[in-house]
Structures are given as C-alpha cells and as structure tokens.
TrEMBL record:
Keywords: Signal. InterPro entries: SGNH_hydro_sf. The keyword Transcription regulation does not apply. This is SGNH hydrolase-type esterase domain-containing protein. Gene3D superfamilies: SGNH hydrolase. It comes from Volvox reticuliferus. The keyword Signal applies. It comes from the Eukaryota. Residues 1-19 form the signal peptide.
Length: 487
C-alpha cells in the first residue's frame, strides 16, 4: 500500500509541479458500512433579516429548511449569481404558487443520478424537489434525466431522452464526467458545454439553467483545487447569465485547508461519488440559491425592463459559430435493440450497478469474429440527399479488458470502414460517441465485427446506441475529444 501511495505522489508532483496539491482520504469505514451518514446535530436553519415584515411573511415558508453546511461555506458555494434573470422568473412563479405548473430537471452523470447514496430520498435532487413542493403552492414536476458514465457531449446529442421540452429549470452537472483540458482559450470542454447550455436555453419555455460544479476525487486522493473546469466554465455563467453553485468552493476549506469534523472528504465522499452527507451539502447549495433569489425578489421585484430583457433572443455564441447541431435523433438503450437485425456472439446486457433504475443496457461481445448488424434511416430533412451525415455510434470506453471493433456499411448506405478501440489507459469508464460519415438511405445497414486484436488485454466491446446528426457540415473534430475519457 505504501509503495502504491509513493508512486502516486511522484506522479502528481510531476504532473502539477508541486507537492502541495492533494490530500489523502483517511480512515474509510468498514466494507458494507456507508461512508457518509448525516450528523443531525449539525443541522441549522436560516433566519430572515433585513427585509420588511410583510415581505418577510411572503418568503417565510421558503426558509423552512435545515442546512448541514455552515453558513460561511453556503456563501462560498454560490460561485456565480449575476443578474439571474431566468432564475428570478422561475422563483417568482414558485413564490406565487397558485397551482401553476412548473417543471424542474437535472442532467449529469452518476453522481446526480444517485450513485453513492443509500436511498432515493437522500439524493440531492430528490431533497431539492421535495423541499420545493413543501414550500410552494405551484404544481411541481421533477425529472432526473442523468445518465451515468457519460459526458456533456453525450447529453448534447441525446437531450430529448432526458429533458422535457417544456421544462422551467434545469440543473447541469458535468464537471467530473467532462474532465479537464489544460487549454485556456478554445477549451473544448467549455465549447461543448456552451452548445449544451444553448440547446437548453433555446427550449420553448426559456428555462433557467444552474451549473452544478463538483470536485474530482479518485480512490485515496482528491484533485488539487485548480484541477477542474469550474473556473473556465465561469465564462459561460457570465456570458449567458447562468448561476453556478460549487461544491469545491464550499467544501474544500473544511475538508482540506482547515480540517473540520463532519466535512472531511472521507465523511462526505465514498469514492468518486458523494455519500448521503455529500448529497445533502449539494442540496444545501441549491436550496440556498433559491432562497437567496426569493429574498432578492422581495428587495428588487422584476420590473418591466427586466421583463423585456427576459424576452431577448440568445446572444451570438461566446465562441464564434459554436452552436448546437440543428437536429439530432438519438436511438439508445432499449430503443437501440429495435434496430438490431442480427446478433451473432453479442448479448443484450444490463451492466448497471448500485440500484441504477435507468439501466446500462447494450450489446456486449467478448468473442473475436462476432457480428452485430443493425439498420437505421439516415435520411435527414434539410440536408441534400447526396451529402453524407455523421452517424454517432455510442460505445463503452474503459480501462480493462476492452477490444477493437470494425464498423462498416453493409447495404443501402456507404461509408469508410472504421476500427474503434474501446481501450483506455486512464482508470475510468464512459459511454462516448464516435462519428462515422455515412450516405443517406432509408435502410442503412451497418455491421460491427469484433476483431482479433487488442491494446487493452481483452476483447470486450459494448455498443448501446446511435445518434443521427441532421447536418452535413457539423465540425468533424467535435467528435475527437480525448478528454471525454479522462477523469
């Protein structure tokens, strides 16, 4: 164990140029015991101060919530507030209640889907949804659209599977799954997030968006404070007026700089995933944001000028031309099974763990020579019939025992054969997409063949879906994002 730790220290020093960049997570609980129960003795409530009595009465019920995170760290965790126009509009409706319909949603990876918690009720989004229903007379519908082990680019191409078109508020959590690219200008993680944000903000009800930024923890260490995309994505918050909450900003001082019992990493995180207390802290940050917005509305109600600003179209993209594809069709999980015409040596498997009710369905093979044939309509309205379009194959990329499959067009459509290596050097697993440019045809028949070669000490290959992009000129380099696979 000491040997492994020493190697890890050396690698980190080489990588970041300093030895003061991480802290070890110590004293993990016995196997089978939850890492991170909530210490109820630390719970506390806010008091309403600084506003008139009649205004205080309006928002009093909104302060019916017990926080776990100390007051100063609640403030630190509100990473960006800005003008918060869309969020103020949402909270105004939340305050009015009157059985008005409101829809809230969350998209992200395994953390916000609930992996690491002991029950549905202890997941942060469940806590926030339950609190909203308890304090508002609005008719609130919530939807957890998170898909574990996927990056933001996956959601960009498959958002219709996870987000209601008439949603009013969307929490977006991808800082862990997207990883880090060490580039300041032209950062591809930020560019992908910009496209996703624009796609959400362009929905019919002009929903509010809140970025939920979480720190990276891996095994016995956590990443240094700066090793995240939080700060670069802050440019999107400012540009698009999107509030942002940061668990890193809130928890790092208590967990690392000034170690405080109840808030240490091993008391809030089990592995890469927060436990019950970690989720409670994320919920605290989200509730704090809503409460402070409600307080803000009492001091500064929405006026006609702000109403006009709310109706403005989205600005030009922050990065020139960085707009989402005009149309996508995502066929994944159990829907993908309906496309398959023949599966020789491939099995339909659910690899979900930790009670993930969404499932991780896909076709899996470990035997070289196995063939999977599926058929899809690649015709796209608005694209010249002679133009090729990107067909995105969803496949698992992982660190152990993965193989290489050849994708090729079998009949109807035409494309260049492509060998796809599912192996990954980093200790990580994600479902990502790779683009195959195909001609358009009503019955485009594709074939996957597992090859008798590997770079990863195995032959496993898993495919779980396809996305058809309705644009012939969508940037090809968008689909070559190595950092998707990096922790």
């Amino acid at each position: 164990m000491a040997r492994a730790s020493t190697v890890l220290v050396l690698l980190l020093i080489c990588n970041y140029g300093t030895s003061e960049v991480f802290h070890f997570v110590l004293n993990k609980p016995p196997k089978g015991q939850h890492c991170c129960p909530i210490d109820n003795s630390k719970l506390w409530r806010k008091t309403i101060r600084g506003i008139k009595e009649d205004s205080s009465a309006v928002i009093e019920r909104f302060f019916n919530y017990e926080f776990y995170l100390p007051k100063a760290q609640l403030k630190a965790g509100l990473e960006y507030y800005g003008a918060a126009r869309r969020l103020r509009k949402f909270v105004r409706t939340l305050l009015l209640g009157d059985n008005m319909p409101l829809k809230i949603g969350v998209i992200g990876g395994s953390i916000s889907s609930g992996v690491g918690t002991t029950s549905y009720e202890t997941r942060w989004f469940s806590i926030v949804s339950k609190w909203m229903r308890s304090v508002s007379g609005a008719n609130i519908t919530s939807r957890n659209g998170c898909i574990p082990a996927t990056p933001s680019a996956y959601m960009l191409m498959c958002m219709e599977m996870s987000v209601d078109e008439d949603v009013d508020l969307v929490f977006v959590e991808y800082s862990v799954n997207d990883g880090v690219e060490n580039v300041l200008v032209g950062n591809r993680i930020v560019k992908t997030m910009e496209q996703l944000v624009r796609r959400i903000m362009g929905l019919p009800r002009r929903p509010a968006v809140v970025l939920v930024q979480l720190p990276h923890l891996f095994g016995d260490i956590f990443e240094p404070f700066f090793h995240t995309s939080d700060d670069l994505e802050g440019a999107l918050s400012g540009y698009y007026d999107i509030p942002s909450i940061s668990l890193r900003n809130a928890l790092y001082p208590l967990a690392a700089l000034y170690p405080t019992d109840g808030f240490l990493w091993n008391q809030t995180y089990g592995d890469t995933h927060p436990g019950d207390s970690g989720h409670k802290i994320i919920a605290d940050l989200a509730v704090h944001l809503i409460q402070e917005t409600a307080r803000d509305l009492q001091l500064d109600p929405i006026d006609p000028e702000e109403e006009q600003e709310l109706m403005r179209p989205l600005p030009e993209s922050m990065y020139f031309g960085n707009i989402p594809p005009p149309e996508t069709e995502c066929i994944a999980s159990t829907r993908f099974k309906g496309l398959v015409k023949k599966a020789v040596g491939w099995g339909w498997v659910n690899e979900a763990k930790d009670g993930n009710n969404r499932g991780k369905w896909g076709y899996v093979s470990t035997k070289p020579g196995s063939k999977l044939i599926f058929q899809v309509d690649t015709r796209r309205p608005g694209v010249a019939p002679s133009d090729q379009i990107p067909l995105l194959l969803h496949y698992l990329k992982s660190y152990r025992g993965m193989g290489i499959a050849r994708a090729e067009c079998r009949s109807g459509c035409a494309c260049e054969p492509l060998d796809i290596d599912a192996g990954l050097k980093a200790y990580h697993s994600q479902t990502i997409m790779i683009a195959i440019r195909v001609t358009q045809h009503e019955k485009c028949e594709m074939q996957l063949t597992l090859l008798n070669s590997t770079t990863n000490n195995g032959y496993k290959f898993k495919v779980s879906g396809v996305t058809i992009v309705g644009s012939s000129d969508y940037p090809a380099d968008f689909f070559t994002m190595e950092f998707w696979n990096q922790p």
